[in-house]
Specification:
The complex is a heterodimer.
Chain A: H1 6-22, H2 28-33, H3 40-49, H4 71-79, H5 86-99, H6 102-113, E1 118-121, E2 137-140, E3 146-156, E4 163-170, E5 173-180, E6 189-192, E7 202-212, H7 223-253, E8 257-258, E9 261-262, H8 267-295, H9 300-328, H10 330-333, H11 340-351, H12 357-368
Parallel strand pairs in A: 1-4, 2-4
Antiparallel strand pairs in A: 2-3, 3-7, 4-5, 6-7, 8-9
Helix pairs in contact in A: 1-4, 4-7, 5-6, 5-7, 7-8, 7-9, 7-11, 8-9, 9-11, 9-12
Chain B: H1 3-20, H2 39-54, H3 73-86, H4 94-107, H5 110-121, E1 127-130, E2 146-150, E3 153-164, E4 171-177, E5 189-195, E6 201-206, E7 215-226, E8 230-231, H6 237-248, H7 266-275, E9 277-278, E10 281-282, H8 287-310, H9 322-325, H10 327-344, H11 363-376, H12 381-392
Parallel strand pairs in B: 1-4
Antiparallel strand pairs in B: 2-3, 3-7, 4-5, 5-8, 6-7, 9-10
Helix pairs in contact in B: 1-3, 4-5, 4-6, 7-8, 7-10, 8-10, 10-11
The chains are: A alpha+beta, B alpha+beta.
């Protein structure tokens, strides 16, 4: 069952309008080729709209809505292939809300609501999707402090982040810890990484002998909450991206002629384009179902199943549609100028965040049978 | 109805079905109204429909004056749900109950309603459909069966194919060509409520790929039918046929209800995967099988969620009709994939067919072969994709 909230309806309209105005598809290549880590003007507007605090409690300066209500924003951003630190900051805030102490929350959530950028550093360099398989470690010092050492990869927006939420092993147990930009040691480094989706700002962060107070360790450690929240929002971006891609393909099929006929009249192209349409409809259905289950706070298993299904379906459908989208553009599809490549690259990036469709099915098998 | 009345009615229906559900007849029943292949199967199902109607559980929302129940549609929906839940046999007069009946109630004369409706409900008169033709399977507008006016009658010549229940039907909803003139192929078509028991109408059973019967090819050889059995005006056949298809596809309501097929859903496949053995272990324990099964579960679940999304207009602004117009395509393709997969769960026994040695009497093998009736009938999957491409995505005609 899907229930669409009033908050979602309201945000859907605002977000569509905002994203279409701020980020027309024609401007995506500019974003790719300028070296800026982010667009401060767009960012400030999003802060002013209150989007950074959507799921942050009012007591910490947020709007106190449910994270599921933010789904339409990410869908609208995905449709325009936008990349802003909103995703990174929103899921970092989720970690704090779920697992942080009162002090940690009051220190950081207020700041995030008003535009301080935070990013979760969880991915180890071996590419393992198991969030418990951690190499980064916290080692106690004689003075009662902790030293963080480790390398995290695919850390979004690290260049502009003032706070890192890092997964590490502490006394053999996985924990989250907070690393502010000021506390990074001189020997730590942040390097831009090359990823397949060129709109993304992705970094490798070496945490080298970073001295932390034990107070920077979060009392709770629910990796799954972070994982599911992230997957829900990534699936939202994917749902939007898939709808955007479909529009690009349909436009081309309705304008390009070969052998004196519009190529959309050929069933070899028409039928698989219908498959993309149905895939897109299904992804959106799974997405809003996942949002419903998340908002209604159903059982842990129900939430996990619904979100894994959404991520699974989105990964499969979006990457396949991107693949076909290139093929249907013929020779033009092989060029950098064709917009289909932007969507395929976005699809591939998203597919490999937190588990592709095969990984999700494996997890779902254990939940379903 | 208030919630307490709904609950009470549901309990009442449920109890009636438990008490009156027919016992296993000892032969493999057909799974849909398109698969009724023997007199034994037909009589069994007709008796069941009669019993359901006499209990007041069919045509509940149809007007009392014509034999209906005059009750809210919700009651019939509750009955349909309980029938599906209890897995009772289907009621065989589907074409009458769900396509011809609502059509007659919508646009038939008073005389038509008095003549046809009650006997549709009681299964006294079985109805069949004469739309497809041997040379024009998916191109309904190109129908070539001729109807030529002669006094108070039309003389019919030609043949229709895929007439489900043709051997048992008393009436046919028939689309035939009354004119070859006119601006286009559609303008020459007319729609009839045609009697089958007149000289020159010969339904001939077709043996299906399953080895069973269930469809006919119906030959018309100078068959004379009364002119007043035309529904709508001469030349309006195409629009009446389109309306019929709307009833058939559930795009408009007003159907008499009852099940028209035995439900087969993904839970049946999961259950089979636990029960069937593949290479010495329950099929569900084999990782590759599990992965395939998970894919099917996701497709089934996704189809259900799409229907739920379709009810929220703001989530369907891009392509508002995509979900409704693809429901037959998605449902029939999923069933084909599920039943095909069901064979693969059985190891070497996947190769068996209807017999005592086969798992569940060969039901799965037969279901798979029969699944093509829905991926082909009512417009093939490929035609559906043309329609979706053209009408929903706005692509040029093929």
């Amino acid at each position: 069952m899907i229930v669409f909230s009033e908050e979602q309806a309201m945000l859907l309209d605002t977000a569509n309008e905002f994203c279409q105005n701020q980020a027309p598809l024609s401007a995506v290549r500019e974003v790719i080729h300028n070296d800026a880590a982010m667009d401060p003007v767009v960012w400030q507007t999003m802060v002013d709209l209150g989007w950074l605090g959507i799921s942050i409690p009012e007591s910490f300066g947020g709007l106190g809505m449910n994270l599921a209500d933010a789904v339409p924003i990410f869908e609208a951003m995905g449709r325009q292939l936008m990349d802003t630190p909103l995703l990174a900051s929103t899921v970092a805030a989720q970690v704090l809300i779920k697992d942080g102490s009162e002090e940690q929350k009051s220190t950081w959530l207020q700041k995030i609501s008003s535009g301080t950028i935070a990013s979760v550093a969880y991915q180890e360099t071996d590419g393992n999707w198991d969030l418990d398989a951690i190499e980064a470690v916290l080692t106690p010092t004689d003075a009662g402090g902790l030293i963080l050492s480790g390398t995290k990869t695919l850390v979004p927006d690290a260049e502009v982040a003032d706070l890192f939420v890092v997964s590490a092993l502490h006394e053999g147990r996985p924990v989250w810890c907070l690393v502010s930009r000021e506390s990074l040691s001189a020997s730590s480094s942040i390097e831009r990484e090359t990823v397949i989706d060129e709109t993304r700002r992705s970094y490798r962060v070496h945490f080298s002998d970073v001295l932390l107070s034990p107070k920077e360790v979060l009392p709770g450690c629910h990796f799954q909450h972070f994982e599911l929240a992230s997957m829900m929002l990534i699936a939202a971006e994917m749902s939007g991206g898939l709808a955007g891609l479909l529009e690009v393909v349909v436009d081309y099929l309705n304008t390009r002629k070969q052998f004196d006929k519009l190529i959309g009249s050929y069933q070899a192209l028409k039928h698989p384009t219908v498959d993309i349409l149905l895939g897109s409809e299904m992804v959106r259905s799974y997405l809003y179902h996942a949002a419903t289950v998340w908002r209604e706070n159903e059982s842990v298993i129900a939430v996990e199943s619904a979100i894994r299904m959404a991520k699974c379906c989105a990964s499969e459908q979006f990457s396949e549609a991107g693949d076909r989208g290139i093929q249907f553009h013929g020779g033009f599809g092989f060029t950098y100028d064709c917009d289909a490549q932007l969507f395929l690259r976005r699809a591939l990036w998203s597919q490999y965040q937190l588990g592709d469709e095969r990984y999700q099915r494996q997890k779902l098998g254990a939940l379903l049978f | 109805m208030n919630p307490a009345e709904v609950t009470e009615f549901r309990a009442q229906v449920s109890a009636w079905l438990s008490d009156n559900k027919p016992a296993d007849p000892g032969f493999l029943l057909p799974e849909t109204f398109m698969e009724v292949g023997t007199d034994q199967q037909f009589e069994f199902l007709r008796d069941w429909q009669r019993k359901v109607y006499e209990a007041g559980y069919l045509g509940m929302s149809w007007p009392e004056a014509y034999g209906g129940g005059g009750q809210p549609q919700l009651m019939q929906e509750i009955v349909n749900q309980e029938m599906a839940a209890q897995r009772v046999p289907f009621v065989p007069n589907t074409i009458g109950l769900n396509w011809a009946g609502p059509l007659i109630l919508d646009m038939g004369s008073e005389a038509d309603k008095n003549r046809y409706i009650k006997n549709i409900l009681s299964a006294e008169d079985i109805w069949c459909q004469g739309f497809s033709e041997p040379d024009h399977g998916s191109d309904l507008g190109n129908a070539q069966v001729r109807a030529v006016r002669d006094g108070d009658e039309y003389v019919i010549n030609g043949s229709k194919i895929w007439t489900s229940l043709g051997s048992y039907a008393k009436y046919m909803i028939l689309i035939a060509r009354t004119s070859t003139e006119g601006p286009n192929k559609y303008a020459g078509l007319s729609f009839f409520l045609a009697p089958m028991n007149v000289p020159g109408v010969n339904p001939t059973p077709i043996k299906k790929l399953t080895g069973e019967y269930g469809f006919c090819q119906t030959y018309f050889d100078d068959a004379r039918i009364p002119a007043d059995c035309m529904l709508g005006q001469e030349g309006e056949g195409w629009s009446v046929a389109m309306k019929t298809l709307m009833f058939e596809r559930g795009a408009i309501g007003g159907q008499a209800g009852g099940l028209s097929m035995m439900d087969l859903n993904i839970n049946d496949i999961i259950e089979l995967a636990r029960r069937a053995t593949r290479n010495g272990q329950p099929a569900i324990d084999d990782p590759l099988t599990r992965d395939e099964l998970t894919k099917l579960v996701l497709e089934a679940k996704g189809n259900g969620l799409m229907a739920s999304k379709a009810k929220i207009p703001v989530l369907n602004q891009g392509y508002p009709t995509a979900v409704a117009m693809s429901s037959k395509l998605r449902g029939s393709e999923l069933k084909r994939k599920m039943t095909r997969f069901a064979l693969s769960l059985q190891g070497a026994n996947g190769a068996r067919y209807i017999s005592n040695q086969a798992m569940d009497g060969g039901k799965w093998q037969r279901s798979y072969l029969n699944a093509f009736s829905a991926t082909i009938g009512g417009g093939t999957t490929q035609i559906q994709k043309n329609i979706l491409g053209e009408r929903v995505l706005g692509l040029p005609k093929s």
